[in-house]
Sequence to fold (406 residues):
Amino acid sequence: MSFQSILNIISLWALPFIIVLILTTGMVKKVPVYEVFTEGAKDGFKVAVNIIPYLVAIIVAISMLRASGAIEMLANAMSSILIRLNIPADVLPVIFVRPLSGSAALGLFSDIATTAGPTAYSTKLAAVMVGSSETTFYVLAVYFGAVGITKFRYALWVGLLADIIAAIMSIIVCGWVF
Amino acid sequence: MNYIFYGLIVLSIIIGAINGKLPDVVNSILIGAGKSVQIALSLIGIMAFWLGIMKIAEKSGVVEFIAKIIKPITKRLFNEIPPEDPAIGNIAMNFSANALGLTNAATPIGIMAMQDLQKHNVNKKTASNAMCMLLAMNTAGFQLIPATVIAVLVGIGYKNPTEIIAPTLFVTSFTFVSAVILAKIFQRFSPVQTAELPLTPNPSPPRGEGETRNANSLFTKQEQGGEQ
Fold:
């Protein structure tokens, strides 16, 4: 509990601390902070607009895949294997949705949590799964899109492998702890 | 990425047709496209704010200072980038912001790091090793407290939501380290196309004027947008 309250304080104060630190250092070093700020901020619009084509490509493709029911089909096809590994059936879709869409994964997790209830193993496993990984496709689209990279090389494979590792480790650790 | 993009779309349409969900699939194009623009537009304000703050951090030497502190680690992970480059400081700040769950700050800072890395990149359309490493760190999604997940748990009346912190932290740390190692392994087996290397110093490469115009940064990128 105390560990968490320490972390809470850190995350509450981190932003104000960083901002004050940067601005104060700037003033001490005689940097014209207002001018430099606005000069940097000018790029905000440009960067956001640059990302749009990349986001549209990836988010549309993933929305289509989710709407087609392919993820449910994949989860069903693999369920016989995965259930033997002690993974509750309701958590299965989370494994496949997590790398594709952050909001969808969080939505799935909320569904599981409300239907299975706070004490269920499914809730805990889904919580760890959702909390321990990132939305690979979104991160790739934003970061590469911002600088106009279209050849990702192995970045996608590393991201997806990391998602698989996160899912497997969640199952192992949760099976052990809860 | 070309195959993945093609595969995702064609597969969705075929599977959607089999499942009788073709109308949903077609409708999802409209929804997805709208959502992408919404996300990008919602980023403008916070992106501008953090790009502004980080510009001050760069000019006042904060970024350089952070780069110096973490030099022993970054020297190994980003061996192609000079250890005192602003990219390294921005990468460190991107990591810290992610770890603290400050996604709003992490993304603009990460993008600044990408822009710095792009300056060292030989082939402006292809990801460099350093970029792939940064992306590996980000897609692994290391964070100290899974704040949104805990919020949901609290919402449903979970008695002791903090009990998921330790397992999550363990899994996310393990995943993060694995992703970094994987990126290093892949790097060895996926050399950057060195064939492109001699082209860049050449003032008029046979590939056309696009390559030389690309050589600078974001500004040229912006003009290029339409041609892609």
Remarks:
- Chain A has a mean pLDDT of 89.
- Chain A touches chain B through 102 residues (CB under 8 Å).
- The two ends of chain A are 18 Å apart (CA to CA).
